[in-house]
Amino acid sequence: MDGLADKVVVVTGAGRGLGAAFALAFAEAGCRLILCGRRMADLEAVARAAAPLGKHDPELVMLDLADASSVRDAVKRIEALTPHVDILVNNGAMWLEASAEPYDDAAVLGVINAAVTGTFLLTQGLRPLLNASTTPDVVTIGSISGLTNAVLQSVSVPFYAAKRAQVALADGFAQTFAGTAIRSILVNPPYLDDVRPDQPDWQAAGHRRKGEGGTNRDVVEAVVFAVTRPRSVSLTIDIGSDDGGLFPYPPAG
Fold it and tell me: What GO terms fall under cellular component here (predicted)?
């Protein structure tokens, strides 16, 4: 966590799950948090848990990544809160599991738009604030469902395709950011057990053995490792599992 104090960190999908774990871990590191999500009550609960851990009270921003107008409003709100953003964690997404029944149009559009359109538009909108940072990082939380030849298993085709597109987004960002100070970092987790830094199972997660499965802590620590590397280093991290790393994580909305 060294070197993260006072950095401005925007986390999407911060109301629960992996996003909440990011929020609490970055709070402990002394970061200034801007937490984004669809449900204000969830964000407020995470903020209450994060505030005693750090030295800054988190700022909260309503954000529905599946809605372009919500993304625009969130960008304006973030611009009003800070002159720069040091770390953008593109964690928010929508989950859609496999089903024998036809999917609603809204469910399919929501999964694709949140993961791809919303993630791109938010990153694009915040780029001026990232350019204003001396150490800007864009972290995209994908899934090993997005890797080539990943087995579909229990996920829907729209989710599978959306996560493949997020891998392409991170690669496209890396190429677009070439020649600038911004790094594009991609982490592809497997299915994760939900643990948080303010709960006892977070400590236990650090002592798991091979074959016991991944947790939120694994992803948070991978991201912290990546963003604290020298600026000459940029990483793509695939967090595997003993079954071949074929299970995607359930994301936070």
Answer: membrane
